[in-house]
Amino acid sequence: xxxxxxxxxxxxxxxxxxxxxxxxxxxxxxxxxxxxxxxxxxxxxxxxxxxxxxxxxxxxxxxxxxxxxxxxxxxxxxxxxxxxxxxxxxxxxxxxxxxxxxxxxxxxxxxxxxxxxxxxxxxxxxxxxxxxxxxxxxxxxxxxxxxxxxxxxxxxxxxxxxxxxxxxxxxxxxxxxxxxxxxxxxxxxxxxxxxxxxxxxxxxxxxxxxxxxxxxxxxxxxxxxxxxxxxxxxxxxxxxxxxxxxxxxxxxxxxxxxxxxxxxxxxxxxxxxxxxxxxxxxxxxxxxxxxxxxxxxxxxxxxxxxxxxxxxxxxxxxxxxxxxxxxxxxxxxxxxxxxxxxxxxxxxxxxxxxxxxxxxxxxxxxxxxxxxxxxxxxxxxxxxxxxxxxxxxxxxxxxxxxxxxxxxxxxxxxxxxxxxxxxxxxxxxxxxxxxxxxxxxxxxxxxxxxxxxxxxxxxx
Length: 460
Hints:
SBP, D-Maltodextrin-Binding Protein, domain 2, 5-stranded antiparallel sheet
C-alpha cells in the first residue's frame, strides 16, 4: 500500500480538509450514547459473521484512534459506515507519513488508552509491532474458511492480522507493439522459452541502437529473483525457516536467464533507462514485469497506452509455485488499549472482515486479488487487468512470510552488482545471503514457506 499511486492523489486532495500537526491528519467524530440495540440490519458474512444488532460498550461513548499511512479518505469511509451503526463509537483517522510511521507507532502503542487502538499493519514490520497486538477474537477455522491466506498468519493458534487482498507480479505488454509484430492472443507465452521468442519479435534495433525493448526488467531484477526461483521447486529460506539461501539451482538459473535476456537475446539493455515502468509508459518497451500497483501507475500517468496483461511464464508449465505474493493486511488491535476500546476494536474488526463490500472496495482501490473467497469470482474485480492476470492459479502463489526489509534490499544490491558491475552471479548472491543472515539473526523471523500446500513436494 505504501507504493499506491492512486492513493497519493486522493490523499493529497484530502490534505485541505484534514487537521493535525507534525505531518499527521486527523478526522474526528463525536459519539453519543446509544440506547438502541436493534438496528434492524441483517447479519453479514459467511463463516466470519457480523450481527450489527447489539450495543458496543453498553452503548456508552468510546473513542478509538486508527493510525494509518495511506488513503485516509477510504479508511475514513469505513469508519463512518461503522459509526452509523454504533453512534457511540468515535473512530479518529490519524494519517502518518510512511517514513515516520514505524518509528512513531511502537512508542505510541505503549501509551495505553491514549495511543492508537487500531493501526494498519505492513507485514514486513510485523517484528516491530507483534508484541503490542491483541489476537482477533474470531474463531480460527472461520477465518481460514473465508480467507484463503489466513492460515499463513497463524501464530500459536491465534491470528493478529490477516490479508484483505494479495498482490503479485504479471507481465504487462503494449498491445500496439504486439499487433505490429504480428502477434495475437494465441502467442501469449506460457513458458520462458516461448517468452524469449516473443520478446525477440518485439525488439527493434536501428543502426546498432536499441529503440524498442522487447522485455525491460530494469529496476525489477530483484523482484524476479524473489519470485521466479519458486518455479523450480526452490525456496528463499532453508528448512529451518530462518536461514536465507540465495544460491539454489533455481535462483542461479533465474539470474542467468535474466542476464541472458540482455546479453544473449538482446531484447533489452541495462542502460535502456533505469525505470522499466516509465519506459513502458513512454512506449519504449514492449513488455515489463510489474506488480498490481502498476495498474494505478498507468491509469494516473499514461492513460492512453493500450496494454494487456498475462500470467508470468514458468519453466515448464507445471511450477512448484508461479511466483511469490504479498498481502495487504487488516488492522491490528493494541493490546494496551483500555477494555472498552478493545471491546469496540474487536467488534469493528469483525464488522470489517464480514463486510465483503468493504473488502471489494479496498481490492479495487489497490488492484489486489481478494483474500475473501466469496469475492474471487467477482466480475467487476476481474475487469482490472492486474487481478485478471493472476486469477486462474492464485492458489499456486506462495507467501515467503513477513520478510524483514533486509532481504529485498540486499537482493537489490546484488542485482545491481550482477547487472551493472558484471560481478559473478553465484559469489554475489552468496554475499547477499551472508549479509541477510547476519541481520536475520537479530530477529525472530520464521519463513511461512512451509505453510504452502505444495511445500513437501519442493525440489521434485
